[in-house]
Amino acid sequence: MSCSKLLSPRVSVLMPVYNGESYLADAIDSILNQTYTNFEFLIIDDGSSDGSAELIKSYDDHRIQLISLPCNKGLVNALNMGLDLARGEYVARMDADDISMPERLERQILFLDANSDIDVCGSWLEAFDGVETTIWNPPLTDEEIKCSLLFESVIYHPTVMMRKSIFLDGSVRYSRDYPHAEDYELWVRLSRSCRFANIGEVLLKYRLHDRNIGRLESDVQLTSAGKVRRKLFSQLGIKATEEEMELHDAISTGRFASDFVFLQQVLEWFAKLHHACRENRQPPYDKSEKVLAQKWYQTCFISTSIGIDSFRLYYRSDLSSILPMPFIHRLVFLVRSIFKIAVN
Predict the structure, then answer these.
(1) 303-340 in b/e burial notation, b at 16+ Cβ within 10 A?
(2) Could you tell me the CA-to-CA distances from 217 to 211, 221, 263 in Å, in that order?
(3) What are the residues facing 207 on neighbouring strands?
(4) Which residues are paired to 204 by β-bridges?
(5) How many alpha carbons lie under 13 Å from residue 148 in its C-beta half-sphere?
(6) Beta bridge partners of 136
(7) Eight-class DSSP state of 328
(8) Runs of H (alpha helix) within 66-217
């Protein structure tokens, strides 16, 4: 697809930048080299003190619109400013250290055009650190995505394309109250009125490095994500004690010291959560069995260092029957449990 300079771009690509000079050229090039070309590229330089602004200015492409802020006001401010400025029918997010695959915009536009009921569209991604790569493959359907929000965000922010109509009246914006989990909170808020989907193919390369927010601000991000989960539980009318929420946070992040008692507590909590979701009768949370079964399996598999009890507890639970696994996966699980092999 090609186009000349147009007054009304179909897509607004929104990319905040703060001292991102190291990887910025790769990010910009990956957008400018898209197979779909009718877009505006809103780059918001959030008061960078490195050479980011000069690098952006070195590009001679009419689609780039550089908005330079005199001082750093934070990611949420930059994102909300971009939403105000965006002229496209669709808004695509991009981070200044990632790489979009050449057909990303085209694939997402075709998907949203063909699925008018979907408001927010993400994709799988390839995480890389210069040594190895890993494919992150979140669930694809609205039902599974929303149920997964009980534990974590499975709509990866830099892969997202959204309908601008969501934001037209100005009432929906990113919140400053959930630093470094502002996207997770937005998805929870939108889950009441919007439908989600992920495209089951890699449309973005996600760069892992020492300056990722998840590494620089890990504690803040974990605290904010916990607040989001509590907000969703409240939104759904699911009652949990603080001890249960702390257990839920540990399961959600995979940060726990496991033993037999811990796994029993997890199983009891999942039974209570499953019952609460069924009684809630708010689709799709009343069909959360598959997501709960996946989390139960992951928790038990992480706990193989405690021995065969992790394997036995998993297969004695009703949740194990919801998630049939290939023989090779069961064998690996059993061997790790027998030999108490910790999962890194």
Answers:
(1) bbbbbebbbebbeebebbeebeeeeeeeeebeebbeee
(2) 9, 6, 29
(3) 128
(4) 100
(5) 20
(6) 125
(7) H
(8) 75-85, 104-114, 142-148, 182-190, 213-216
Q: Give the C-alpha separation, 68 to 337, whole Å.
A: 55
Q: What is the pLDDT of residue 342?
A: 84
Cα 98-103-106 angle, rounded to 5 deg: 115
What is the CATH code for 11-216? Answer: 3.90.550.10
User: Rounded CA gap, 315 and 317, in Å?
Assistant: 5
Cβ atoms 187, 153 nearer than 8 A: yes
Residue 15 to residue 27: CA distance in whole angstroms: 9
> E strands within the chain?
11-17, 39-46, 64-69, 90-93, 99-100, 120-128, 133-136, 161-163, 196-207
Q: What is the widest separation between alpha-carbon atoms in the chain?
A: 65
Among candidate residues 37, 43, 42, 35, the one with its CA nearest the CA of residue 101? 35
3-state secondary structure of 36: coil
DSSP string, 111-143: HHHH-TT--EEEEEEEEE-SS-EEEE----SHH
Nearest to 73 by CA among 178, 172, 176, 223: 176
Cα distance between residue 64 and residue 48, in whole Å: 17
How far is Cα 159 from Cα 105, in angstroms, rounded to an integer? 10
Contact status, residue 21 vs residue 94, Cβ threshold 8 Å: no
Sign of CA dihedral 280, 285, 290, 296: negative
Quote the pTM value.
Answer: 0.94
Mean pLDDT by 10 residues, the chain (344 residues): 61 97 97 98 97 97 97 96 98 97 98 98 95 96 97 98 97 96 97 97 94 70 96 93 96 93 96 90 88 96 95 94 92 96 79
Distance of alpha carbon 93 from alpha carbon 147, whole angstroms: 23
pLDDT at 280: 79
How is residue 122 written in tokens? 């993400």
